[in-house]
Specification:
Pfam families: Lactamase_B_2. GO terms for molecular function: 3'-tRNA processing endoribonuclease activity. This is Metal-dependent hydrolase. By secondary structure, this protein is an alpha/beta fold. 22% of the residues lie in helices and 27% in strands. It is built from 7 helices and 14 strands. The protein has a 7-stranded mixed sheet with strand order 6-5-4-3-2-1-14. The chain has a 7-stranded mixed sheet with strand order 7-8-9-10-11-12-13, with helices on one face. The chain is globular and about 55 Å long. The N and C termini lie close together (5 Å). The protein binds zinc ion (ZN) (2 copies). One zinc ion binds next to helix 2.
């Protein structure tokens, strides 16, 4: 499995951090996870391109995770691609219907399939996926993508969430975990973790590598201290993700 971080930013994007988006690929299968502002351009810069991704999996419906959805739909239509599947938590159908009500000229341009998924196990774009509800200001799902063969590990994406034991358990044993780490320690926030709470939640878990993502501009220049805060609770391999980073799992 190959994971490309298309966007590692947040609702306050930076020039080098688009909003949230991840490209998950294996063999000839590809899946876009979240589609925030700037992600479509980043996707166009990959070999796969927006022509090559027929399925989008959403963690939740906040703007920084969905705002490039209709632009993706239009780009695929112009490129002659005739279908798009959008999969996400309860409310995804209504969300897409409402968007298409506003942009009437986009209706019926491509064969748009919408599927709402609960927590649990299901297939998306040929990937075996497990979902769990996380702790955010709106309904949000974390996803665990099963590795292909015996030698391939799993990939887990937290979505937007506070750090908590249940999510750490969900990620336990994975080869790679990409976790929301929106702010440095001194920012008072709910619905996202602080570095020390993330470190405490991950304590004792067996995870190959953790990538921090969903980074607000507040985190710039403070990476070292954030890693130190995490390391007080968790002694595993933790790194900052960056746009364009590609990892083979
Ligand atoms: Zn959010
Ligand atoms: Zn977000």
């Amino acid at each position: 499995m190959r994971v490309t971080f298309l966007g590692t930013g947040s609702a306050m994007p930076a020039h080098d951090r688009a909003q949230t988006g991840l490209l998950v690929e294996s063999g000839d299968r590809s899946l876009l996870v979240d589609c925030g502002s700037g992600v479509l351009s980043r996707l166009a810069g990959t070999e796969t391109g927006y022509e090559g991704v027929g399925t989008v999996l959403l963690t939740h419906h906040h703007l920084d995770h969905v705002s490039d959805l209709l632009p993706l739909l239009k780009a695929r239509w112009l490129a002659g691609e005739t279908h798009l599947e959008v999969v996400g938590p309860v409310g995804t159908k209504r969300h897409l219907d409402d968007l298409l009500d506003v942009y009437e000229y986009m209706q019926n341009r491509v064969d748009l399939q919408i599927r709402e998924v609960p927590a649990g196990s299901f297939d998306v774009g040929g990937f075996a996926v497990e979902a769990m509800e996380v702790r955010h200001s709106v309904d949000c799902l974390a996803y665990r993508f099963a590795g292909d063969g015996d030698n391939d590990g799993d990939f887990v994406f937290s979505g937007d969430s506070e750090a908590f034991e249940g999510l750490a358990n969900f990620a336990d044993g994975a080869a790679v975990l990409a976790h929301d780490c929106s702010f440095p320690e001194d920012v008072d926030v709910s619905g996202h973790p602080t570095p020390s709470k993330l470190g405490a939640a991950l304590s004792g878990r067996d995870i190959g590598r953790v990538y921090l993502t969903h980074l607000y501009p507040h985190t710039e220049g403070r990476h070292e201290e954030m890693l130190e805060s995490i390391a007080r609770g968790y002694d595993g391999d933790v790194r900052f993700a960056r746009d364009g980073l590609r990892i083979d799992i």
